[in-house]
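Would you mind writing out the residues of a protein together with its fold in token form for me to study?
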Amino acid sequence: MTQIIKGGNLPLSGEPMRVAVVRRSDGPGAPEVDAAALLVGADGKVRGREDLVFYNQSAHAGSGVRLTGNVRGEGGAVADWLEIDPGSVEPAVERIVVAASCDDATFGEVEDLYLRAVSAATGEQLALYAVEDATTETAILLGEFYRRAGGWKFRAVGQGYDSGLPGLAEDFGFAVPEETVEAPEEAEAEVPVQAPVPAQALVEGPAPVPAPAEAPAPVPLAVGAVGKVHGHVPLSVPSLGVPLARCNDLPAEMGPEFPAVEFSGRGKEDIDPGLTLPKGFVVVDVLRKGDGYIEVVTLTVRGRRWREVLGSGLPDLYGVGVFHHDGRSPLRLRVDAPGMAAWTIRLRPVSTLRAFDGPVEGCGPDVLAHTGDETDVRFRFKGDEDKEGYFGVHVHRRGGHAQYTYSRRDRGRGSGSIPRGPRLLVIEADGGWSVEPGASRITSFWTRRR
């Protein structure tokens, strides 16, 4: 039997092979996957960059390993093909590791990923391994062809890396520092932080507006029993300080358009907005005067807590959260503000989010729309003067998947890279923050040349 599970191995004849890294693409916007091979010595390391075969270096000079290209077939199947001739591999090479990277997404978003090796002469299947447990990885060591007792064997590995191909290669003794041109460091200055405004199958087989000086009080509505909606008011004016005109270029599939609605209440309540919406993201603005903690979560069909939309203990909170609606289940939320604190929430389309197209400042939870290219960014977290606090940025793509997370638990500066859009930048913060374009990336060994 040639199909094996993670950790399994099987013998090979040593004949020339063609190896396909196969996955399924759902069309434009689907994750881009690249195959790679690493030629590893007895010490578990590569000897240098010459022992890597990937998109910028498609052949190994001395060992008969080549990356022959990408092929797309019927039904959305996509494959990257490698040619491996074990008889031509240098004696110093003990293993040929086959990996895949996914720089613009995670492998949890990649459908039907598997590796299949076939005889180069007859097309007979030699090995098949399907990946079934990928989640947040941006690179995966799929399997390895290795020497054993004078012959060759294949092992299904399935080890993932959140740090991509560079991180995987570093484990095998090779890394190229990412080259960047840093923008000049500006003098430290206390800048006032304003409140936010918001691949036949390819192989046979398987715009900012200042917040009001005084946030408006919740709309007075009669208080009913917990679990009942007190009422709702159709939103006809931007009473939470955010214009409802479209203010970014997010594609329609990121979230539906609908008239924004407001709900007000006190303490803990379950809300049924009465909205029937297609699949996509929905924005939630949260306003709570005074001190205390407030949390907004989505609910299951049976009314059980599902996923947090926003949670914050900032005083006089005006925060922005987002959740991904599956388009099938009833849209229901729970607001929980202990002590019968008054609150107002608003549901609105993602098309009304602030665009991340330059420096952006805010205070507390927020969500930004990123529609540009991959962008290096610099973060600054001012936090709260009386405590360290927390700052995090989670990058979400179409379908509700989170890819990249930056976080810190103290005040200060940091940097990262936001993938190419469209994306939503979901910010968690216990105080003031800023996000701005930072270091400029220049071509390096790892930068793909298409």
Remarks:
- The CA atoms of residues 182 and 439 lie 4 Å apart.
- The radius of gyration is 26 Å.
